[in-house]
Amino acid sequence: MEKEAREEVKRKFIEFLEKKDFRITNQRRVIIDTVFSTDEHFTAEQLLEWAREKDSSVSRATVYRTLPLLTESNLVHEMDFGKPYKFYDPNYSESPNHNHLICEDCEKIVEFDSEKIEAIENEIGDKLGFTVKSQNLQLTASCDTLKRKGTCDKKSCS
Amino acid sequence: MEKEAREEVKRKFIEFLEKKDFRITNQRRVIIDTVFSTDEHFTAEQLLEWAREKDSSVSRATVYRTLPLLTESNLVHEMDFGKPYKFYDPNYSESPNHNHLICEDCEKIVEFDSEKIEAIENEIGDKLGFTVKSQNLQLTASCDTLKRKGTCDKKSCS
DNA sequence: ATAACTGCAAACTGTTTGCAAGCGA
DNA sequence: TCGCTTGCAAACAGTTTGCAGTTAT
To answer: In CATH terms, are A1-93 and A97-158 the same topology?
Structure first.
């Protein structure tokens, strides 16, 4: 995501807060800046750590209280890969139709688009008489290059 | 699943335990009987409750220690729908290629087949240079009939 | 002014584990 | 007998929450 796009997303979130009569506090500003200054997927704990680098007063509680606001606003996407903690995706609003593959070797998450899959999903929903609200295709995979060479150049396997 | 098939699956699991030099204890037997006497998806807590109806001595710890054995044996499938607890599917070995849709109205899980999706998944894995290890397509949906009529006759919305 | 928000620490939930006793092979 | 397995209760990890003080509006 480019810098301009990031500013746009931040602005949208501020609007979201204002519309709900929520206050724009310093801590929230720091958290927002942190979330939308990266393209990486993160956990609550990672977000806390990053935010504290900018402002050490940010507390774990505030991070946990802000995350639901971010997902409600549809600007951040929550993902569950069967690990005991959740991952968050700050690129969601830019391309809401992507899915994720998580590498079991290094836990790195790779995004991919697939309208094909989305079409099938809606087809399935229709057939069963449901309206699909959200979809989460989680592929767990291992890195081919890593296995062959013992190392790999993917950003995903460092 | 029919009664015969259930016995077959139980037998396979006993074999799995024997091969690993694990013991066939009373508690394990009760848990196995419970798991494979239903077609329903369940949580650890539900399994504990059901097992205790047959034998009140079964403890939570044993249930939690047995579940990984069941999933390792590939006779039961573990699923994560973003809820704080996991669901388990006792029909997995019968049709390992099905996926799941969870109703957000009643949390009932509906199974569906889709080889189409599996094909696409492998295609994606290839393209990205990964070997797909496991896939989990989670559709969260709401029931159309329920919404229209305020009630519905699906087994899924009671 | 005042109601929303904060940090802290305690509580909570689902799951795991150390231990002494029990029991299958 | 031997050591795997058990139930219990305490521990654990991630997340949520009550409270008293703080701050945005």
So the answer is: no
Whether residue B85 lies within 8 A of chain A, CB to CB, comes out as: no
In the numeric block, which tokens belong to residue B18? 């024997």
Tell which of A139, A154, A155 to mutate to test the B interface (max B CBs under 10 Å).
A139
Per-residue pLDDT tens over the stretch A52-97: 999 999 999 999 999 999 999 999 999 888 889 999 999 888 777 7
CA distance B82 to A32: 23
Q: How many helices (H) and strands (E) does chain B have?
A: 6, 5
Q: What is the spatial distance between Cα B93 and Cα A135, in angstroms, rounded to a whole number?
A: 24
Q: Classify domain B97-158 by CATH number.
A: 3.30.1490.190
A129 contact B CB<8A: yes
For residue A119, give Cα distances in angstroms to A123, A141, B64, B109.
Answer: 6, 23, 38, 21
A120 contacts chain B (CB < 8 A)? yes
| CA pair distance B65, A37, nearest whole angstrom | 42
Mutate: best of B71, B79, B80, B139, partner A, most A CBs <10 A: B139
pLDDT digits (tens, 9 = 90+) for A94-134: 777 778 888 776 777 888 877 788 788 888 888 888 888 77
Query: Contact A112/B134, CB-based, under 8 Å?
Result: no
Write the CA distances from B117 to A120, B25, B124, integer angstroms.
7, 40, 10
Pairing of strands B130-143, B98-103: parallel
- Domain at B1-93: CATH architecture: Orthogonal Bundle (1.10)
Contact between the CB of B82 and strand C at under 7 Å: no
Which residues of B25-68 form beta strands (DSSP E)? none
Sequence spans of domains, chain B:
1-93, 97-158
CB atoms within 10 A of CB B62: 17
Q: Which nucleotide is nearest to A27 (CA to C1')?
A: C6
